[in-house]
């Protein structure tokens, strides 16, 4: 076991020392399990009706980060929006069930709770007790297409200000592609940029799918595809590491921000004076990459909060992500025991090159 692995494992001996705010977009991940053998013809429509024999619900988007942080032992304070609907109740319960603090989740009648509903079908001849034997058939997304009121946005910022003295780090999760159709709006970005620019305070970090180039004064995380989308006429080979380094440097200069770029199985690149590629782990067999970026974020920020250097924290992020993608039909999470075993090489999964 190398010195980096030893240092990470030592830091994870006391994960409860980390206090992290997860701010922004939350969603409910709802999985509905059906067996084709149970289908029946609807008397009303004559169409085939799926009968659901099991459902699984967990927090998604910012909730996926929260799940991993809590699974690893960090303290988490959630700041986001819940609709006063059934999905909102389920999302709140999911966050509470992992031990997150939801007192600053804003409840409202004016917006619905964002929800990804995934209908899963059992493979022929498989056991219905095996969650990995199901394949996704359809997905239904509940979304808002109006901007949150300024009152709600101001309440989010007030809760953030209130939490700064408590937090070691703030993770901003900017999930949605449509402008101003989630918890993180243009106005929110301006306010968060200003707060992050203060001389003292917690680490600020953002994961934004569509608006990464509108953040300042914080660590900006992109995957390689999102990085290239920030530029006109980007290279066609999105996996070319030399191009990722080139454009990551340009993005950092443009934004005056520290950049972190994930590169799939190649790991991630930590940008500083000299960019460093941190290899991933060589996972084999079936994988499910849903939530992989959020798992990386959780590991990375937990590492920084516990005093690790950025490249060491990136190794932790890669390790956490490599564990979660092996969990099928779910947004997985990792434990300290699993992370420690992988870092020691006890589970047979090697580092990449």
Structural notes for this entry:
There is one protein chain. This protein is an alpha/beta fold and 353 residues long. It has one domain: 3-Layer(aba) Sandwich (UDP-N-acetylmuramoyl-L-alanine:D-glutamate ligase), CATH 3.40.1190. The chain is built from ten helices and 15 strands. The strands form three sheets. A nine-stranded mixed sheet has the order 7-6-1-10-11-12-13-14-15, with helices on both faces. A four-stranded mixed sheet has the order 5-2-8-9. The chain starts with a helix and ends in a 9-residue tail after the last helix.
Rg, alpha carbons: 20 Å
Shape call: globular
Query: In CATH, what is the homologous superfamily?
Result: Ribokinase
- Percent strand: 25-35%
**What's the number of extended β-strand segments?**
15
Specify the helix fraction band: 25-40%
Order of helices and strands: HEEEEEHEHEEEHEHEEHHEEEHHH
* Number of domain units: 1
Fold-level CATH name: UDP-N-acetylmuramoyl-L-alanine:D-glutamate ligase
Could you give the order of strands across the largest sheet? Answer: 7-6-1-10-11-12-13-14-15
Structural class based on helices, strands and sheet pairing:
alpha/beta
What is the average per-residue confidence, as pLDDT, rounded to a whole number? 94
CATH architecture: 3-Layer(aba) Sandwich
């Amino acid at each position: 076991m190398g010195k980096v692995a030893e240092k990470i494992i030592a830091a994870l001996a006391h994960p409860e020392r980390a206090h992290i705010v997860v701010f922004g977009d939350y969603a409910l991940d709802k999985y509905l399990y059906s067996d084709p053998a149970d289908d029946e013809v609807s008397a009303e429509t004559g169409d085939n009706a799926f009968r659901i024999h099991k459902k699984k619900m967990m927090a998604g988007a910012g909730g996926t980060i929260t799940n991993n942080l809590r699974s690893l032992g960090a303290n988490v304070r959630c700041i986001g929006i819940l609709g006063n609907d059934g999905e909102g109740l389920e999302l709140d319960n999911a966050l509470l069930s992992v031990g997150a603090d939801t007192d600053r989740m804003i409840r409202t009648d004016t917006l619905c709770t964002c929800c990804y509903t995934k209908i899963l079908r059992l493979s022929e001849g498989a056991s219905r007790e095996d969650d990995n034997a199901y394949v996704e058939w359809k997905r239904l997304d509940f979304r808002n297409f109006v901007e949150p009121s300024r009152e709600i946005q101001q309440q989010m910022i007030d809760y953030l200000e209130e939490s700064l003295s408590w937090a070691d780090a703030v993770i901003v999760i900017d999930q949605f592609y449509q402008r101003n159709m989630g918890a993180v709006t243009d106005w929110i970005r301006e306010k968060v940029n200003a707060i992050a620019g203060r001389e003292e305070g917690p680490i600020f970090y953002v994961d934004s799918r569509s608006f990464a180039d509108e953040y300042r004064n914080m660590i900006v995380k992109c995957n390689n595809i999102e990085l290239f989308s920030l530029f006109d006429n980007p290279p066609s080979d999105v996996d070319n590491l030399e191009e990722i380094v080139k454009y990551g440097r340009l993005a950092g200069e443009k934004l005056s921000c520290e950049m972190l770029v994930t590169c799939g199985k190649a790991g991630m690149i930590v940008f500083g004076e000299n960019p460093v590629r941190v290899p991933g782990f060589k996972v084999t067999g079936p994988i499910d990459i849903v939530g992989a970026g959020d798992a990386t974020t959780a590991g990375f920020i937990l590492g920084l909060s516990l005093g690790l250097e950025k490249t060491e924290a990136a190794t932790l992020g890669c390790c956490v992500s490599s564990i979660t993608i092996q969990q099928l039909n779910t947004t997985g999470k990792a434990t300290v025991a699993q992370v420690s075993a992988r870092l020691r090489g006890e589970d047979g999964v090697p580092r990449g090159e």
